[in-house]
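Page 47, continued from p. 46.
Same chain as before, 224 aa.
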Amino acid sequence: DSIQTEEATKTSMIMPFFQLLGYDVFNPMEFVPEYTADVGIKKGEKIDYAILVDGEPLIFIECKAYGENLDKHNSQLFRYFAATLSAKFGILTDGDTYKFYTDLEEKNRMDDTPFLTFNLLNLQDRDISEIKRFTREVLDVDNILNSAENLKYSNLIKNWFAQEIENPSVEFTKLVLSNIYEGTKNQKAVEKFTPLIKRALQQYINDTMNAKIKSALNKDGDSD
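Result:
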């Protein structure tokens, strides 16, 4: 609650995070605050931090105050990324949510969609292995890029599926009906089956989770 500003977020949350990854945040030859570059007709624009490798910026970091909505703040990262050929990663963060970008779709043009997103206050086990790739001692650009595409599209698929479970679209409903319903797939059928499909999907997920929990409990019981 005491972190109310962008500067407080940088000092209390963001710099310690990169320090934990092994970067010397007080070494301006490695971790540069207020990195300046000319971007097109805009001169002297600054980005919050740049991580240098062999004297060239490899990672740009754009910071916002803790709790700020990050969805509309990637434009500066986008411009810097396009103007700096050595840059391979852009990070947008409020100290809790971290969004990692690269150029999977078009070389030297930062993707609109991050390939990795995580929340430090709700960290998943799978996030940790991806974060480890960015530690200073093992940082390997090719290794990260090899996994980035699969990671990006896996996340997009999961997000799409989560949205369909919560609110099945007309297209998704028709896809399901094409496999189970012999009648006409018109608007009336879509309206009739949409809530049923939603309930069925949620029941399937609940049943699967309960089965896994029961199996785990049985294994624990057998081990005792």
